[in-house]
Write a structure and sequence with these properties.
By secondary structure, the chain is an all-alpha fold. The protein contains 15 helices and no strands. InterPro entries: Glypican, Glypican_CS.
């Protein structure tokens, strides 16, 4: 009653043993594919971790770097500016990690929150009554009177260029893990299980426990079993090319490190622009939002302070040069894995599974 290991000679197998063999080949094949995938998956997971750690470190530095602008140059609004700065960097982080948000909405939301502070603390420092309605009116007016000139839009453009590649790379790495996990657990068809039993275990039914499959026979069986997996070859090659492109984009002129550390300077230029145009802005705001309460002694609004260049930026960029090296190492490794899915049958037939250095091997029917 044997279904797979049918042979003219006497046999020491039963139908139940054949079923056990089918379970064994399914388990073994999953384990061998997992072993092949391990190094590749380890590299991608490692790079995701490195990328996220470096990115969080960059964000923390850039946030502190930006906050220090308010503490050193715009002290009257430093405390109130802390929350909008924190929100801006949280939004940037969420964008890179794939959230449904845009760089433009994050930056413009920040400048909407910043304008009431700049207006009431720097342009008109005598304002005492900053009610919720008046603050909201200032926020809405910002969109119409554009107090920060071209600087807010420039900041959107610069950040969008550099953060886009980082966002795409982050999503692409996650996709790579998903593909590998899916192929690891690809179910074997019944025909494949039977072919594998015939190749690996049918010799046992005749007492030939040391004989192994012929290399050509193994390749035919494995290619048949893994036809659906090897069909990924073209897409995998395309995927590696995309990773290479994104890595080059990140390393190009729109570098993530430079863009994030440049946020401080962009905000400073925007605030200076608003202060220089203070009288015109006040006249427009008074028409739209009305006149707020003032202190009797109005403080001078000519409090434009130039910010000293922060020397630590250079050190910071040098410290993150290692991130560029890690990107390069990673992409070189991934390029070597270009043929991963095309050569999976050859790699599974390598090693102990087949007979290489002997004149005899199993061809599915007999010892040859």
């Amino acid at each position: 009653d044997l279904q797979i290991c049918q042979h003219r000679a006497p046999t020491c197998c039963t139908k139940k043993m054949e079923e056990s063999y089918q379970a064994a080949v399914r388990r073994e094949r999953t384990q061998s594919i997992q072993a092949l995938n391990f190094e590749l998956k380890y590299m991608i997971v490692g790079h995701i971790t490195t990328f996220q750690e470096a990115f969080e470190s960059l964000l923390r530095f850039a946030e502190n770097h930006t906050s220090s602008l308010f503490e050193t140059a715009y002290r009257p609004m430093a405390k109130e500016a802390a929350e909008p700065v924190k929100e801006l960097f949280t939004d940037i982080s969420l964008y890179i990690l794939g959230a449904e948000t845009t760089v433009e909405s994050a930056v413009l939301r920040f400048f909407d929150s910043l304008f009431p502070l700049v207006y009431s603390r720097l342009i008109n420092p005598g304002i005492t009554d900053l009610s919720e309605d008046y603050t909201e009116c200032l926020r809405l007016t910002r969109q119409d009177i554009n107090p920060f000139g071209r600087y807010s839009k420039n900041m959107v453009t610069e950040l969008s260029k550099s953060l886009w590649a980082s966002r795409m790379l982050s999503q692409a790495l996650s996709l790579g893990i998903e593909v590998i996990n899916t192929t690891e657990h690809a179910a074997l068809t019944k025909e494949c299980s039977k072919a594998l039993v015939k190749m690996q275990y049918c010799p046992h039914c005749q007492g030939l426990t040391l004989i192994r499959p012929c290399i050509g026979y193994c390749l035919n069986v494995m290619r048949g079993c893994l036809a659906s997996v090897s069909e990924l070859d073209a897409q995998w090659r395309e995927y590696i090319s995309t990773l290479e492109y994104l890595t080059n984009e990140m390393a190009a002129s729109h570098d993530l490190e430079i863009a994030l550390t440049g946020i401080r300077n962009s905000i400073n230029e925007a605030i200076l622009h608003a202060q220089l145009n203070g009288p015109q802005l006040s006249a427009t705001v008074d028409k739209v939002c009305g006149q707020p309460k003032q202190q009797e002694e109005n403080l001078s609004s000519d409090s434009i302070v130039q910010v000293k260049e922060v020397t630590e930026t250079q050190t910071f960029v040098m410290a993150h040069a290692s991130l560029s090296n890690k990107r390069r190492e990673f992409i070189n490794y991934m390029k070597r894995s270009r043929t991963f899915y095309a050569s999976i049958a050859e790699r599974l037939c390598d090693g102990d599974l087949v007979m290489r250095d002997s004149s005899t091997c199993w061809n599915g029917e007999d010892v040859v």
